[in-house]
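Q: I have 375 residues here and want to know how they pack in 3D. Can you give me a structure?
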Amino acid sequence: MSPVGKILKKCLGDMSFNTGGGTINWYPGHMAAATRAINARLKLADLVIEVRDSRIPLSSANQDLQPRLSSKRRVIALNKKDLANPNIMHKWVDYFESCKQDCLPINAHSRSSVQKLLELVELKLKEKIAKEPTLLVMVVGVPNVGKSALINCIHQIASSRFPAQEKKKRAKVGPLPGVTQDIAGFKIAQRPSIYVLDTPGVLVPSISDIETGLKLALAGSVKDSVVGEERIAQYLLAVLNTRQTPLHWRNAHNNALKEPQNETDDKRDYNIKDLLPKSRALPVASNVHYVEGVAKGVQCALYSTLSEFKGDLQDEDELEILIEKQFEALQKALKISNRANEARMMVSKKFLTLFRAGKLGPFILDDVPIVTAKS
């Protein structure tokens, strides 16, 4: 077992992700109904766009759907590529290609990026287009991987082709999993007619691997309240430390030492939760600078604690001690008072928000599988 796995077991106990009666019950009733509806419609689909999170290309796959999806024409859209490490992203594309699976990293908020996805979809349907008058494309994925954002962008493209569709209701987009709870569709092409169906995000009823479950929680596919913000923050710190990521933030630390301290920052009334996507309005420049300053402070705190650490990162007991010190350093960096109620919870929430918004840098949490050449 890896050091991360050991500290998870030590700090989090025998946590499990099970439906009903398990340590963590996170499989809501609408998800079970949606899974049945998706399975029924998969039989009719001519192609499936499976949306995954670029930061967890394997962990964000719904394993229960994989046997059915593998028998269909499928394109894996690795969404949120702007939050993923570009130096590793191409390795994932190569991996999926070695598995003879079409894969395209995308940003669902970029029209040009989604347009490339639609071009690939039409290419994959080229043979059927000549034979069938009507084709059906399904969009599936676990919660909060950006399906609704993708659907909205596709809707915009379709509306420019078919103005009559402009008044159709757009999918809801939010930072919380489970926003889309029904199935809806619209036309994206004519002659032949190609319809796209949006579906709710569905997870499997049980995840045997605790680390996979925590990756999903870290990416926002499982609600924080289900797992606990502190647990997720502990996991993130364990991952960053074992990868020694904070040591790459040395420049941010050195630059911070040279910069004069701005006393007004202490009194600033600004909520980091505003980083979460609530609207497409452009952020205020002063707020952007403030958040960047907070992110640098977090990076400096983690760099200092790790660079001063003389223990063994492979030892779960010593790693746990380091993480406790880092919580204290983060509390100071985030200017959370020791007198504040639930200070540790506040630290965890702000730390996770910065990570999810990409303010701590681009990451890919899954490791690329090693593909052995067939003789």
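Q: Anything worth noting?
A: The radius of gyration is 22 Å. Residues 169-183, 263-270 have pLDDT under 50 and may be disordered.
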